[in-house]
């Protein structure tokens, strides 16, 4: 942890600390001025690119507006889903269409890294700082394409933890070479569930994975390769914390990730805005439950939830333990921003 992070957070109000723990989604139809004002007025962490952006002018207008603000002297993060294959939101001329991760795994790790580095540099030149990739989930061979979130859409590197870890490490090396923040996802893995958490609240329980599961080795290899961020799944793990989504679970984020793995990087949520899996929880409380359980950066596809989320996070800080946890989460965000020259 950069010691400057603590000093920066100490100078912020509780509302500003809460804002730094929220990343909002933007789509091509969003007003750049509205998004920039939202970031500036609420001291938000930044944006992530949603939908399919095919017009360079629209993307540049959004990025110019977002990069024109720096609340409290802190620049916003610009993130994007950019796995390749079906999951690539920036599709403008001059940005390569990347192969799926399934296709990358048919290349040598060195070739896969080269392909990823080229694509990541193209995004870095546009002003993107963070990519939600690689997918380190190991696909259950008994499910195959019945695993809708990963296998069905060719998003995984395979069914072997070592292979998945090796290729995840190659992708991370490619991102880091381009100066991009990589994000290993979706801890502790969604390769053993049937339904997609974005669209279903049933069929998203993993009944196999245990706390010290061999399938988790792919994530350990990703962390060892220098993944600066990790995204938490919005699935449930009956043998780890039954009845609790992983992104609301202290057993997953605090006990396993920080404890068992010794992970010190940024912990990011899967979508808390439009994912059906979280609809049973009040919009604002999704962020406070995530952060109180050990998460750092709550992402929401719905920018309209930024206000309620900040309110819930500041209410959480009414207790000394809640205030400490909020400050710790904000420090993790600022720490990454310091490493990528996104703060004064």
TrEMBL record:
Entries under PROSITE patterns matching the protein: GLYCOSYL_HYDROL_F3
Recorded GO MF terms: beta-N-acetylhexosaminidase activity
Gene Ontology BP, a term: carbohydrate metabolic process
Domain of life: Bacteria
Catalytic reactions of this protein: Hydrolysis of terminal non-reducing N-acetyl-D-hexosamine residues in N-acetyl-beta-D-hexosaminides
Lineage: Bacteria, Bacillati, Actinomycetota, Actinomycetes, Propionibacteriales
Ranges where the Glycoside hydrolase family 3 N-terminal domain occurs: 14-336
Pfam families assigned to the protein according to its UniProt record, in alphabetical order: Glyco_hydro_3
TM annotation in the entry: none
EC number: 3.2.1.52
Source species of the chain: Cutibacterium avidum ATCC 25577
InterPro entries: GH (IPR017853), Glyco_hydro_3_AS (IPR019800), Glyco_hydro_3_N (IPR001764), Glyco_hydro_3_N_sf (IPR036962), NagZ_Beta-hexosaminidase (IPR050226)
Protein name according to UniProt: beta-N-acetylhexosaminidase
Stated family: Belongs to the glycosyl hydrolase 3 family.
Coiled coil: none
Keywords assigned: Glycosidase, Hydrolase
Enzyme class: hydrolase
